[in-house]
Amino acid sequence: MSIDSAILNLLKLDPSNVTASGGVGGGTSSASTSSMTVKGSDGTTTKYFIKTGKGKAAEVMFAGEHQSLTAIRDIVPTLCPRSYGHGKLADTPNKAFLVTDFLDLSGRGSLVSSNTNVTTLAQKLAKLHTTPAPIPEGNEKPQFGFPVPTCCGDTQQDNTFCSSWEDFYANHRIRFIVARSRNSNGTDKQLEDMVEDTCTKVVPQLIGDKHLNNGRGVTPVVVHGDLWSGNASMGRLPGMTGPEDIIYDSSAVYAHSEFELGIMKMFGGFGGGFLKEYHRLVPKTEPVDEYDDRVALYELYHHLNHYAMFGGGYRSGAMRIMKDLDAKYGVGDKSVL
Fold first, then answer.
1. What are phi and psi of 62, to 5 degrees?
2. What are the tens digits of pLDDT across the range 159-194?
3. Distance in angstroms (rounded) separating the CA atoms of residues 227 and 149
4. Residues pairing with 151 in the sheet
5. Quick one: which H or E segment has residue 51?
6. Which domains are delineated in the chain?
7. What is the pTM assigned to this prediction?
8. If residue 64 lies in a helix (H) or strand (E), which one and from where to where?
9. Residues annotated as region Disordered (predicted)?
């Protein structure tokens, strides 16, 4: 197996010092993975992880993941692999690539205990979620969104910047993904009507900018965007003396920190101890008594996204969440958003 010249040029490598290996796991349904080992002049070796995919969709996906990993690592350097770059392959037409640190998962186990001297996932994530996201170029105030599109699974997300969290979540997540679902599953009037009620009634009542934190709203922070147990593990990155909690396959966005918790709830999270430790460091947003409902609202997006991608039973999960929230918050002016 040979390494494409575009990757060699990116990393300024001599091909005679490079050994490639295929099929190392990780990635998405539309991406293939491999690794390469580079031997240095001093005899030491450095290993890299490579994703490749076909067409424009892969270019967009890898550009988003590169920016996502960079945004996370700029705040918490030990939380995720470093991305070295992305682009089009030179030797294979219509294919794109992403190159990152290789994450050594040998000896992997459960997440780090809070009783050790190693920084835990909860502690690392708390640092990420209590650091304000950078103000995007050309803006004077914090924004919700992201500089480039990112992909949650194979869904290319609309990350257009918006100063309002309720506006961003209603329009660039919920309404957006239902439009995608319509393309893949056909028109579904019952689902679409429930989504519209959720956006016009529940969203302003539950996560409205004038409602959260006693009217102060929330500050956008960098979130992973697709953080469930399949995208986190104990492993060792270059420079680490032992395994630590690492996250990967990021779909980052500048968002309300609690948005991160929606997909955790959908797929079982990281255990009760994780949330207890996390919330000791990141207090729940006010009103605290609406916390569970906010997390359910954020979980809704992932049910709708999975329905758009895979169809099937994810529709019923989305409908259940919307019906439950509508029963509690389904009042309001449909002209709000």
1. -75, -35
2. 999 999 999 999 999 999 999 999 999 999 999 999
3. 17
4. 156
5. strand 45-54
6. 5-101 (3.30.200.20), 121-329 (3.90.1200.10)
7. 0.94
8. helix 55-75
9. 22-42
